[in-house]
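W.,

You were right to be curious about this one. When I first looked at the sequence I had no strong expectations either way, so I just let the prediction run and decided to look at it fresh. Below is the sequence, 202 residues in total, followed by the output.
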Amino acid sequence: MKKCLFLVFIFVLGISFNTIISGPNDVPSYQQKPQLDYSKQITKPSSSSNSRPEQSDDLKHAIQYSLMELKGTKAKEYGGGTGTQDVELPKFYIDMLYSLNIRNVGLGNSNMIYINAAKAYPKLFVQIDWTPDLELKAGDIVSFESKNHNYGHSGIVYDGGVGYKFSFLEQWKGSKTIRLNKNPKYYKSILGVARPIGEPHK
């Protein structure tokens, strides 16, 4: 009997000693590779219109004033004697808002002015590439791809809208006045806009 009790005692003591050495069974082994749940990995948020800078009330008022001042007036020759090219209207408009004196500053052809204006003045404009669901806003400098040549066309959005449902101010070489165009589909396609975001000059 004493021998049996002695064997049970040794058996229990061995289990306790093994637990102390190896630790509890629910402790993971560091030699095993962790199983990653890729469905919960963090991804960067995509850029959207919600992340674009908002226009202040002062800027919105300045834009509306500028558009009303330009509509139906004499076409602007604002680029070193090149005539009333379409790109000269956006340059004149930029000076109306920000007084930068850019009459002789080159911002490229019409199909690039929405890119170049935002690059040249990143605190004043943001470049937005066109998508079918893009809402154009009054005051946006819009660039088109032209059906007739490789230089494109440009203007200033007058009444905003989604897709091709907007109107814009434009001029061209030889035009006498700045006219309101309500048919953006006259041009091949929209490329994008440079949207004013900086505070206007006071």
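Here's what jumped out at me. The first strand starts at residue 125 and ends at 129. And, maybe more interesting for your project: The domain at 75-196 is CATH 3.90.1720.10 (endopeptidase fold (from Nostoc punctiforme)).

Coffee later to discuss?

I.
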